[in-house]
Amino acid sequence: MGSRFTIKLPKKKQVAGVFEIIKRSAKSEWLDEETTKNLSKKLMEDFKPPNGWFEVEKYPVSSRFVFSSIHILYNENLNEFSYFVNEPPLSEEDLRLVKEIVKKLEFYPISPQEIGDKFGALRKKVNRILDDFRIKKEGADYYKILYHIIKRTILYDRITPLMFDPNIEDISCNGAGIPIYVFHRKYTNLRTNVTFESEEELDSFVINLAQKCGKHLSIAEPMVDAT
């Protein structure tokens, strides 16, 4: 379908208000905000820039369900700034597990009693899938996998940290395999390290995004402005 999208984010206070709704929906046990904040800081401190880039600025981006860090990098040879998202890393095995669990979730329907608690329902279903397939994940490994599943289902998939960054005003994607660009309040237009790997993945994301925003999307109009 060749999807593209643009998201114009509201002011910081409004963004916080939107995500308060998500926070209030969580009735099951999860890491508290102080813990996710500390995890984000740890990610930030452990980060090492890719070769040829040096760090200009860094800051944690966290919320009730998010722990990540943002790094503004500069490449002297390219004379370019870049926006680098740093999240809990997944091994190839864990990435396959996350993808498999997300696929299997559709076979574990939500009961009417669980509709008001999306996070609690999701966590129960993830736990059931892990138990059914006798997969044991504990501590940091469990929360890391659960975080990436939450991102792909309840939240905003690959752009979740961007949506939670109060410094971002616009998020734009012009196609699969093309880096997403953001408009940063301090550094203006920046290329990110975030991409959608395939047209299928991007199309699926844009359709879900359009549904969340109450927008119409068709093959004739494959672009969504999620303002």
From TrEMBL:
<dbReference type="GO" id="GO:0016887">
    <property type="term" value="F:ATP hydrolysis activity"/>
</dbReference>
<comment type="similarity">
    <text>Belongs to the GSP E family.</text>
</comment>
<dbReference type="InterPro" id="IPR050921">
    <property type="entry name" value="T4SS_GSP_E_ATPase"/>
</dbReference>
<protein>
    <submittedName>
        <fullName>Secretion system protein E</fullName>
    </submittedName>
</protein>
